[in-house]
Each structure stands twice: as structure tokens, then as C-alpha cells.
Amino acid sequence: xxxxxxxxxxxxxxxxxxxxxxxxxxxxxxxxxxxxxxxxxxxxxxxxxxxxxxxxxxxxxxxxxxxxxxxxxxxxxxxxxxxxxxxxxxxxxxxxxxxxxxxxxxxxxxxxxxxxxxxxxxxxxxxxxxxxxxxxxxxxxxxxxxxxxxxxxxxxxxxxxxxxxxxxxxxxxxxxxxxxxxxxxxxxxxxxxxxxxxxxxxxxxxxxxxxxxxxxxxxxxxxxxxxxxxxxxxxxxxxxxxxxxxxxxxxxxxxxxxxxxxxxxxxxxxxxxxxxxxxxxxxxxxxxxxxxxxxxxxxxxxxxxxxxxxxxxxxxxxxxxxxxxxxxxxxxxxxxxxxxxxxxxxxxxxxxxxxxxxxxxxxxxxxxxx
Length: 370
What we know:
Layout: E1 2-4, E2 10-13, E3 19-23, H1 25-37, H2 62-67, E4 76-80, H3 85-92, E5 97-102, H4 105-120, H5 123-130, E6 133-135, E7 138-140, H6 147-156, H7 159-171, H8 193-196, H9 205-217, E8 221-226, H10 232-235, E9 241-245, H11 262-273, E10 277-288, H12 290-300, H13 315-328, H14 330-337, E11 342-347, E12 360-367
Parallel strand pairs: 4-5, 4-9, 5-8, 9-10
Antiparallel strand pairs: 1-2, 2-3, 6-7, 10-12, 11-12
């Protein structure tokens, strides 16, 4: 939960009543404008950063990753927050107590808007407001973030979160869609509903309506904190979890100072995070996309589906990328050096890159056995 202090700064409070993070809106807007006007090249190192571009929807196969778990035995979870994909998926599976974290302040602010939208809007309005429309091979955003749908949501948001979106609406002259011409949102992956509903239940009509019922009944606890993955063992140190899900954060492990080597990641998993698990608890350590899946397959001598080839990469280029992932990626690194991780392949989000293409993604996990 959150409250405002005398300086107009959001303070995030955990279940035990400790202040764990503050959001300074002046700094947030300053950094937001930096992100919005920067060249993509300048932002290449800012993917895992306190003020980064926003993912409007999950980029991974959330349904597939959660379906690997026996959710009937999951009562507490710690997940990457992002736009809420894993939060909402676990709620639909009956998990009642969920902690979430994300280093990105902007991502948290968007999640709060999305959460109140699901509580408030009917399915069609939600889809028209938060998804792109498909036109030929591209994406258009003519209906997305339309002011008549967004404005009532802003009035339902608490304190400075609401103030952020209200001020942003004023800055954009009541037209948030112009943000798609900046780096405010990441639009380098598909955002139309026909695609998203395959990988995140939020975008399926029946699941959306069920999730709306769950959120309105308020019989759950969601605690979303702004912090780096490096800090979760300290911030959530009085909790025990049945599952921890990091999605693909560790794809960027070499940019995270205390986790920039495979051995450090392994120690973090087994010493710091394992202590936060109940016996039999699972950590989904990393989510690998198609290249990682092929690298793992190559490592273990398995034949994967044919790799998709697009206009950007030739077969030779793809082979070089896979070999590099095999040498330097976190999933191949942990598998090749340590025996107590296991991997599972799931349908990949890249399946529509070419006709008849069947992609695979890979999830690396660790289970606490004693």
C-alpha cells in the first residue's frame, strides 16, 4: 500500500509496515522526458533501469510459464511486476497473496493504471484502450489510450499516482497517444489482442471478466514494490514463498552489478533467494526466448524447431547469435556449470514471425529440496 508524506512523495509500505521505497514525481518527470526524447541507441543500456520505457503488455508467454507450476499448491508468490502479467495470471489461478517488484518507476505507474482499468472497464473498452489495432503487418494506435476512457480511471487512482497521470494528460494536451511517437512505450513487440491473448489471459474475454470479478471482490493481497532484483532478499526478507518468478530479467544479468557473473547468480539463487522459499518452493530463474531455447538445445544435443528467419538476420547471423548465447547466456551458463537447475520448453512468442513456424521458449527453474 502507499501514502503521501508532507513533501508530496509516494511512500511504498510492505506488509510489515516498513517504508521500502519513495517516488519523487519531480525526478520521475525529469527522467521521463529524458527517455521520451532520447535516441533508441542512447537507451540501449537502459532496459534494466529505474526510469525506462514501459511495457504495455507481457512480452513473454506468461500462460505457458505459469502452466508449468502446480498452482493448486501455491499460496504466496513473488514475481516481477512489469505490467502485471504474472500478477493477474496467478490471481486467475487462485493465488491470493502476491508480492511484486520492478526497478522501473514508470512501469509501476503504468501497472496502477492498468489495474484500475481492469476493475472498471468492460472488456471491449479495455481492449480498445490498451491494445494496438492490427493493420496489415503493422500496429496502429488510433484508439489506444483515448482520453474519454482514461480520464475516469485517473480520478480513481490514489494520490501521486493519479497526479502523475493527470499531469501527463495535461502535458500531452489530453492526447496520450502522442506518447507512441516517443520512447515512453516499448512498441517493438506485438500489442494487438489476437496475439496477446495466446500468452496472457488478461486479453481473453472470459478470463478478463473473471479477473475483473476477482479484483472487485478484493479478496487478495498485492504488494508491488519498486526495487532492483538485487534488493528483494532484503526488502522481502520476512516472507516465505511457494514460487518466485523473474521472467527474463536475468537476460540482462551482466548489466546488474552484483549479478554480473554466472557464479554470482547461482549464489544469489541458492543462498539468498532459496532461504525465502518454503520447502518444495520453485524459482523460475529465467525465461529465455527463441535464441536462448536454441542455445539450450544445442548445449544438450537436442533438435529444436527450425529457427525463424526474418529480413534482419541471415542464417549465418542467427547461428552466430545462438553460439554467443550458448557461450554467454545465463541459462546455458547455469545448466553447464551446475546440476540442480532444470529447464522446460514452452510454445514461443515468436511463432508468428513466419507462416507455419513453431517457436519454442525455455524456462529455467530451481526447486528447494531441503
